[in-house]
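Regression check, magnesium ion case 1197:
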Amino acid sequence: MNWKWLIRRLGFMLMVLAVAVILNFLIPRLMPGSAKQAYAGKLPEAVQVKIIARFGLDKSIWEQFVLYIQNTLKGDLGMSFSNHPNSVTYMIGNALPWTLFLLLTATIITVPLGYVFGVIAGWRAGSKTDTGIQIGSLSLLATPLFWIAMVLLYVFSAQLGWFPLRGAETAYSGYTGLKWVGDVLWHAVLPVLALMTLFGAYEMIMRNTMVTTLRENYIITAEAKGASENRVKYKHAARNALLPLITSVGIRFATIVGGSVFVENIFSYPGIGSLIFDAVISYDFPLLQGAFLIFSIVTVVVVFLLDLVYLRLDPRIRY
Amino acid sequence: MKKRLVFSFCSIVLVLSMILGPLACGEPVDTTTYRLTAAVTDLHESSNPFLASGRGDIRIMSRIYEPLVVGSGGAAIPRLAESWSYDDSTMSWTFNLVQDAEWSDGEPLTAADVKYTLDTQYAGDYSGGGDSKEFVDTVTVVDDNTVKITVTEYASAFLDFLNSMYIVPKHIWEDVADIDTEANLAPVGSGPWLWDEYVPQSHVAFKKNPNYWGGTVNIDEMVLEIYGSQELALLALKTGQVDMVPTVELYSYIPQLLESTDVKVGVDRAANFYNFLFVDHREEPNNLPAFRQAVSMAINRQDIIDFALFTYGSIPRMVPLVPEAIASEDVDWPGLGMTDEARIDEANAMLDADSDFSDFVEGETRTYKGDPLNIEMTIVNRPADVQQAEIIRENMAEIGINVSLKLIGFGPMMGMMFGGGWDDWTWSTAGHGAGGSTLDGLAQEFGADPYNVWYDAPSLGWGEDGDGGGTTAARALQADLRQSRREDDPATLATLIEQIQVDFAAELPIIPLSQGNTIYAYRLDTFTGWAPQEEMDGQGSSGHLLGTINILALEPIAQ
Amino acid sequence: MPILTVDDLRTHYFTEAGPVKAVDGVSFTLDKGESIGIAGESGCGKTTLAMSLMRLIKGGAVVGGKIHLGDISLLDMSINEFRKIRWERISLVSQAAMGALNPVYTVGSQIVEAIQLHWDMSKSEAWERTAHLLTLVKVDPVRGRSYPHELSGGMKQRIMIAMALACDPEIIIADEMTTALDVVTQAQVLKLLIDLQKRLDLSLIYISHELSVLGQACDKMIIMYAGKIVEMGPTAKIFGAPKHPYTQKLLGSLMDIHSDCVIPDSIPGKPPDLLNPPKGCRFWPRCTVGQVTCETQEPLLIEVEPGHYMACNCSDDKI
Ligand SMILES: Nc1ncnc2c1ncn2[C@@H]1O[C@H](COP(=O)(O)OP(=O)(O)OP(=O)(O)O)[C@@H](O)[C@H]1O
Ligand code: SF4
Ligand SMILES: [Mg+2]
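Current build output:
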């Protein structure tokens, strides 16, 4: 472990989080209208009074900031306009596991797939296999996510009836144990498939770094040593080409998070994406802010975890 | 190798999900349980009746709780109150409760519960009961089954306001520490359903109330499932995944729906809404009745219904604001039934007659007092609305008025209207009932009494008298409308309405365009006994397909 | 009997414009314990020749000729069989040696990999041997646990030499082995290599720009020009009495400037385009003594005195 580096990254992560939290504080206060409007605007008057007191919305900006930080640390992000008396934290708490499940499953499947296809394509760059894979990846990359999601839904759910039309589980099913797991997986297939279009991006990155890596001298050394083709391909070339892929997973993660808003909405998936969609429609500012804050936290944490993976994979990282 | 492991793990998960999923779901839940599933596209999950607002909440509230009456446009049908009366001399309403109503926990429902509910709602300034709080002075328990509500002023919409006043059990709510944060996840109500499971953003499930005072519920469970879009909800209905869609908003899908012989599409005329063209009378020539009449004459209302509402709308009543119960169904719109050419000629003649307007020249914009008639019309950016606006724009071009459309979102539209910011013309929907409507906004901006919009709105003919006072003619119309809601003698009422009809046509302060209806759809192969059309009408906003009367009549079809 | 016999070797790269004849009829022999230096301007085909010997040509192929290691023909073997020859009998310290080590593995493990690819040895035995090899190249065995980026250039080059020795090969091909090192380190590494070569009785093919290096290190010299051998002979002869006009120019300019003993760019003109080499002598466009016949008549490599070969039409005319 490279502790110095780790501490630096941790510090960096905390700084990004701090910026996200501060933005979350500032945005409703910079918006036209007042913070009162943004926090309490659409709540019943009796509730408004309490929210105003809780967030000190009639106090000075500094006092508001202190209260805001205190509340945020306590996990109090305010009250949802459209779902009161449910708190924002409650709504997010219910939605987050579904979104994480969707995003992580999609990532865990897509990245290795992109890796394998990228290695195959990059190994024989210019071959027919390569061209085929590139056409596939490019078309996936060029097709809007929501469109793919809709096509999947209409073909496999609406027309063929193989998959459900909505949701993350059968409503009010009473399923437990393995049956419930099966039900959840069955509901996740299409949303995950839609998110898996990001495979195109991963494959392209992997393929291109693979091509440049193959020109490296250590590849010649490995071949000259008498290593088998697969050994050269995976142990030497792909192992190095993997590093940019991991970086790109972090960068792409924000994109997938954005994509999940569409995908969740199309599949009526009860995650943060659907929450954001509903919040936008019903002008539910507290919920929207909370959802964005959670998304920034998730993204930062994922990027940090990827950093740890990177740290393990690339010995060159020093500080 | 580790990588291989990860990869194979992922493929196993994927394959497992493909196999396990359908396996797990292929099995019916329980063959002896009858479940009614409804697809909804908006559902805001709250079962706290003090905080309930909006359609989503009302769907949940009105399954569990019940109001005293279900009012609609001045008339009402009984619910917890079996009869009621208003006494002008004491300015009080008396409600007689049904005898044997009880809460789902077995406690009797009494007048004390009603008083507790109203008092708590008003004291906490909650939204239940709408604007009724502006009128209510005191609530008194006369005896166990009688409540007296003393008001400060007679309000035409009082019974409508009470639609959302869900009576709650005093013995439960008294002990609630903080009503504002009470999620009420195990509600005790008096309605036909017991709240059973709530999964955010997914569904709300109810079990039947076996001891419902109002009758026997034949269905065991009811599930409201949230769908991401109307298309999907309707698709689910078509493919039999749900039994009903209580509100069909996507008119263009209806023909497709009708391909299935198992699906019936119905029109709930009670839960309808009006489409109005609001013209700003403070602007010239909007202030001229003749101008408004010419505009109204030129509009092809039949086209609006045929093309924009896919024939699921209807021609509006001549005077939309008289109580529905007594409104004349005869539609006698000037211009209706005339050929297009005759209608347009007539409208042109009306404008040509005024020398302030330049004469009509094909393809040119008229001028009024030398200024070209360029009119900006604001509309909500929704397909059906935009289509209606387009038809109006074309009609206006035929009489030399150049209309440009300004599209805005629904939220901004409401903001605009309540915040004051009317355009030359504003095209909007005004639902009736206690919720915020365009009429409320209109009344607020122009200084009328917002709680009596039902008869104040037509008086907002700002015209020559200025200052929101309305023109003499408009004020006479307003007085007649007020009277129409309190007139008991049928003969006098008939004459009154006839007079209103004539006055309204002459003044035309607001131009009615069409009447949209609430469309519902259900499957014919799962349950029988869906309420016929006549029973569906007149039940107000909570009276659509999920309503109690309908639900009690349903019988499952054994599969 | 020579250990390595190269006979009329031809290697072409296939480009869109046609075949690039990078090695065009090269023949030479290498005896056990002998060291041959190969010199020539950039692009004359030195690396191609080395890669052809390792059967590592990318984007091209050996299109003619024979290579014999002892009495086995290397070009007639299947690639899988040939993988056993690699490193076990011929190892390669490739050009730009800085990148010749895989950055994500410790240098020791890369040597271990080479050993285990060919010898049936346990991991600990292989590590032991690695430690021994590292001491042989005067590197502290603990350095085996280091990653390439943690080592200096000279150290890496020593480790490459250790790696080349991993399986006791008969032949080591060193391509521009010391180019990127500073002069002092260069001398140390070179001395180490020559010592080891002598001590272990290795055969060495040493490719370099640096003529002085070749002079110190090699028994025999091959001068290449545009894919062909123009002069070949004992180092003393080549340096003492160069016969070919190109060699003379090469050495002449070297003497003139008394510089770093690097092949200078001061021969006027450019090497020919190997896509369409001149029909006759390839040096003709730049040769100051050539005759008209040289333009069309290709000179053959002939033995001008015992062990000394050269290819020039004007071999008899002393300049
Ligand atoms: N993959 C390839 N495709 C096409 N042409 C190539 C390829 N590799 C090398 N060449 C060409 O073949 C010729 C010989 O190249 P090579 O690398 O063998 O030269 P070199 O003598 O090693 O040069 P240097 O001293 O710069 O290392 C050059 O003209 C080069 O441009
Ligand atoms: S053959 Fe002719 S051109 Fe070639 S090197 Fe000899 S003299 Fe020069
Ligand atoms: Mg080279």
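Comparison notes: Chain A has 13 helices and no strands. The pocket of magnesium ion (ligand 3) is lined by residues C 46-47, 95 (CB under 6 Å). No diff flagged against the previous build.
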